[in-house]
Amino acid sequence: MRIRYDREVYALYIELLLLAPGTAENRELTEDIIADYSPDGKLAGLEILDASQVLGEQLKEIIVEDASVGVIHQREHPNLVKSVFRSASVHSER
Predict the structure, then answer these.
(1) What pLDDT does residue 90 have?
(2) What is the distance, to the nearest Å, from the Cα of residue 45 to the centroid of all Cα atoms in its chain?
(3) How crowded is residue 84: how many other Cβ atoms within 10 Å of its Cβ?
(4) 45 with 83, same domain?
(5) Contact 47, 12 (CB under 8 A)
(6) Do 66 and 93 share a structural domain?
(7) What is the pLDDT of residues 32-90, one digit of tens each?
């Protein structure tokens, strides 16, 4: 799984499955949330447009949690989505 945040357009993308370019089927769930599905119907990703407005202050705090062990990483920072998930993978390998 990969989470990307584009600060230039304020879009947050949660990639659940890696798909070949042009193979995703997009479905608008709300005006600001688009779901991508694989050709076989599996949820492949979620895009949140204008994420800074939709998520507000919640975007500044990221908590990575493993159901079997609890919180792996928690951090507050205004621009942290990319860095937290990179460091969280290091914590989860321990």
Answers:
(1) 39
(2) 8
(3) 19
(4) no
(5) yes
(6) yes
(7) 999 999 999 999 999 999 887 877 776 666 666 666 766 555 555 544 444 444 443 43
Domains: count for the chain? 2
Q: Look up residue 10 and give its two tokens.
A: 């304020």
Pair (39, 77) in one structural domain: no
62 and 37 part of one domain: no
Q: pTM for the complete prediction?
A: 0.66
Helix (H, G, I), strand (E, B) or coil at 35: strand
> What's at 37, amino acid-wise?
Y
pLDDT at 24: 94
**Which residues have C-beta within 8 Å of that of residue 91, sequence separation ≥ 6?**
64, 72, 73
Q: Which domain holds residue 70?
A: 56-94
Residue 12 and residue 25 in one domain:
yes
Nearest 5 degrees, angle CA 65-CA 28-CA 13? 35
CA distance 29 to 20: 22
